[in-house]
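Protein: AMP-dependent synthetase and ligase
Species: Thioploca ingrica
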Amino acid sequence: MKFIGCLAEERQITDNVLTDGLFSLSYGQILGCFEQFNRVFTENGFEPHDCFILEVENTIPTALTLLYLLENAYSMLLLPGGSLIGNSPPLPSFCRYALTAQVLDRDEVEALNPARFLNITANPAWEPNSPLLEETSAKLLLRTSGSTGTPKMAVHTHANLHSNVLNCVHRFALSYADRVVIPAPIYHMYGLGAAFLPSIAAGAALDLQKGANLLKFIQRETTFNPNVAFMTPSFANTLLQTRKSAHLYRLTVTAGDRFRTDSFARYETTFGPLVQLYGSTELGAIAAGTPALPMEVRQRTAGLPMPDVQFRLQGQDSEGELWCKHTYGFKGYVDMRGNPVDLGADGWFCTKDFARLSPEGYLEVLGRSDHSVNRDGLLVFFADLEKIIGTLEQVEAVAVTAGSETERGKKLIAYCVIAKDSSLSAKAIRAHCFDKLPRRVVPDEVRILDSLPLLPNGKVDRVKLTAR
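Structure follows.
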């Protein structure tokens, strides 16, 4: 996936900077770092067909390693930082080495030499004849989010990922004149395929932020002066609650859980145009809005499908379970030994989301099919209940899960995070639901929590939530 070799020769881009707040380098300096990677890979006897595990954090050393692997057509599996501690989870046998970019000192010149920061570990479970590597095209593997169960590994070719990236460059009109901030993790498809790689492809200045720390975000906002941001809805809502002064962005992109209705207009007043992206680990960017759309459309929908994406609704003509076919989507799943997992469905992928398509083709996601229950013989989406509870100003976050069986169907349990200066009670929240919703949608229980457990991609970790 050739980005850097082309960009480093364009005069208006060479001085643009990539930073993580600790280390910075320009596009013009990246090729010099790649020469150092060449020496390290040669000294370690790495082969072109080797597949690597790369622990990914939002840091410049990690970003350089990732870009080098892509630029030189290596296959890799991306895992969150810290995944290799204690060998948990077990390492897939098709990966020969694990790479971790770990800075041991702050001497900026030497610290960005991979001979200093790159930790290399041989995989004791490696098997040289994995079915995954029989087909020689370069591959990038991502684990699914695992918000409701055990993650799987999705396989993308570099060629398809590259086309997916260019779709995002064009949809968001990214260019070398942009200054992009990314507090979303780049080991996940949103942070990687919609934010980081499109920003690199456009030659934009880039600020990678590790850990999505709000105070650091505000401090770096002053020094880096970004005009484009990619973040999760939960981070955007927290930013809106905390920051009182305005900082107008050309564009903010969110993806993941639904953005709170009452917060959308307030966010735009303070930070400028906001658009929602709909995507998945398997298909990458599926649909996204643009600032040119009316605010009501941007708030309600994820915009139009990306080029070469087809939609099919399993149900009524304009509403039902969403199936997608994407020319540049994944090739399939593999198990820990690299054996393919049969998908079937003739190239169509079931998103497990219920959706509505407008006459103009805009995609409105109504809720997850596995985030719903049958009550009184009718389907109830958790998202509908979450939306109504979220209209209470004192509620900072809400998530709904199913409980034990009742006469009406599965019990509905709403977990709410209340503003610190609020005395809002669980009883008052239920009363609000009685006023706004049919009886079958009213939660059987409301539980007040200090915070909701989150996955690194910003989605609610419903497995941990239901275990409480």
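Remarks: Residues 237 and 263 are 7 Å apart (CA to CA).
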